[in-house]
Amino acid sequence: MKALKPLIILFTLCCAATNISAQHSYNLNNTAQFKAYQDSLLRISDDIYNATNNEDQSFANAKFIKTLVAALKTPSSFNFPFDSLKRISILKSPDNSLRIFSWQLPLSDGTYRFFGSVQIATKDGELKMFPLIDGTSNIKDINLITDHKNWYGARYYDIIPVKGNGKQPFYILLGWKGNNAKSSKKVIEILSFDKLNQPIFGKDIVDGVKGQAIKNRVVFEYNKLNSMTLALDKSVGMIVFDHLAPLSPEMEGNFEFYASDLSFDAYKLVGGRLKLVENVELKNEPSNNDEYYIDPKDKQIKATKKF
Hints:
The structure is a single chain. The chain is an alpha+beta fold. It is 17% helix and 36% strand. It contains three helices and 16 strands. The strands form three sheets. Strands 6, 7, 8, 9, 10 and 12 form a six-stranded antiparallel β-sheet that branches. Strand 9 and strand 10 (199-201) form a beta hairpin. The chain is globular, with a radius of gyration of 19 Å.
């Protein structure tokens, strides 16, 4: 765990609130340079994947961060997809205004550390980049609104822009969070920006059933060996998810014994708010994102399928 602190410092120094002037056209002038960076990142990601201890893994991850930041600082980087990097998640928003890099570092004790960056393309061609510093261990209240320096880390696999009513757009993020050797987590996160265009995580738009408090984010926790659906279902226009329940009544509140009860609930976006809809009937198959339930490095553990 001690080796992770220098990584946080390195990431912050490399890309903290970086501002670079660049024109964001789709004509890349630095394609060869980006491909070289991508090849280097692929080799380093193999080193991370094949590391046999936390120290070697952290060392390789620090090298990966330094190389990625150097690549992103190169003019026109926003338009290079880096699509050969399969071991990290790279999401570009449908409105083409930002993209998010995120990945996890599995630790020997079964927990995880998350890393990432928000890269923003502004209308005037200025490129802004913010490091995402995992503050999960310091966040005791999952309803806490945080900034990029105290991030409730996750590996994101979907981004949903929300616009309307003349207000600044915000983004709903769906992510896999991992947790420990016994349980996994998934999260519905809300990303917005303050008046200084700094990223903010968490927003009071999530409504539960009548009588429940409004939430700033939603976190699901369930048994490590079970998969969980959490996906945008475009056919019904809702974020659909498994209803989780304890395997037996006496296990209530002990989330390592939670799994799907084979029913589904959903959040429907209404007037810029997420409204809970219970007992949703689904006609389509669960998403491939169900597999984001465990560290992708550990291929020996298979999901328990529900269908």
